[in-house]
Amino acid sequence: GEHPPMTSRDWKNTVRATIAYLERLNDSGKEK
Q: N or C: which end of the chain has fewer CB within 10 A?
């Protein structure tokens, strides 16, 4: 079915989660 478009708040939360995930990958990569 159709789902409503993401609100700006949803978008910001998604971006924030993605950045946190990438930073976590970056940190674990530096340790090794």
A: N
Contacts (Cβ under 8 Å, ≥6 apart) of 13: none
pTM of the model: 0.61
DSSP labels for 1-32?
Answer: ---PPPPHHHHHHHHHHHHHHHHHHHHHHHH-
Gap between the Cα atoms of 32 and 18, Å rounded: 22
- Contact assessment for residue 21 and residue 14, using Cβ atoms and an 8 Å cutoff: no
Torsions phi, psi of 17, nearest 5? -65, -40
